[in-house]
Design goal:
Elements: H1 11-14, E1 19-24, E2 28-34, H2 54-69, E3 79-90, E4 99-110, E5 113-122, E6 125-137
Antiparallel strand pairs: 1-2, 2-4, 3-6, 4-5, 5-6
Length: 141
C-alpha cells in the first residue's frame, strides 16, 4: 500500500491510500483504489447521486506521484510537499463501486522539484488528468 511509503497523519487520508500495482523506479507508478461508497467523504456528496469528490482523485494521484518520486534512493524516507496543480481536468465522474487506477510519470525532476503527469482511469476510460508539482526533500542518511 502507498501509505507505507508516504505515511499521513491527517485522518482523512489514512483510509485513502491506493494499493501499488507497479513501480518503475523514478519513471512510472500505477496504483488502484476501490471506492466502496462507505468512505467518510461520501456522506452528502451527493445524496441520490453519489460521486467521488475531485479533491479525493487529486489526493490519490498525488500519493501515487509521491511513491514514484520516493522510489528514488535519495528521496526514500524523505519529505514530499505539494507545490502546485496544473492543467487538471475531470473527464468523467467516478462513482462508488468503481475502481480507480492512478498513474504517475515523472516529466521533470531537478534538485528535488518534480513535475509529474498524473491520470485517473476507470477501466480503460480516462476520468481525470493533470500535472502535479511537488518539492521533495532528500532523506538525511
Amino acid at each position: 500500500m502507498l501509505n507505507a511509503s508516504c505515511a499521513r497523519s491527517w485522518p482523512a487520508t489514512r483510509s485513502l491510500p491506493p494499493r501499488s500495482t507497479s513501480i518503475r523506479l523514478g519513471v512510472r507508478a500505477v496504483a488502484e483504489h476501490d471506492f466502496t461508497g462507505k468512505e467518510w467523504y461520501q456522506a452528502g456528496h451527493f445524496p441520490g447521486n453519489p460521486i467521488v469528490p475531485g479533491v479525493i482523485l487529486v489526493e490519490s494521484m498525488a500519493q501515487c506521484a509521491t511513491v514514484l518520486a520516493m522510489s528514488l534512493p535519495e528521496y526514500r524516507d524523505g519529505l514530499g510537499l505539494f507545490a502546485g496543480i496544473d492543467e487538471m481536468r475531470f473527464k468523467r465522474m467516478v462513482k462508488p463501486g468503481e475502481t480507480g487506477r492512478f498513474e504517475a510519470m515523472i516529466d521533470k525532476m531537478r534538485r528535488g522539484f518534480a513535475r509529474v503527469k498524473v491520470k485517473t482511469f476507470v477501466g480503460d476510460e480516462l476520468a481525470a488528468e493533470g500535472v502535479i508539482q511537488a518539492i521533495f526533500q532528500p532523506n538525511k542518511k
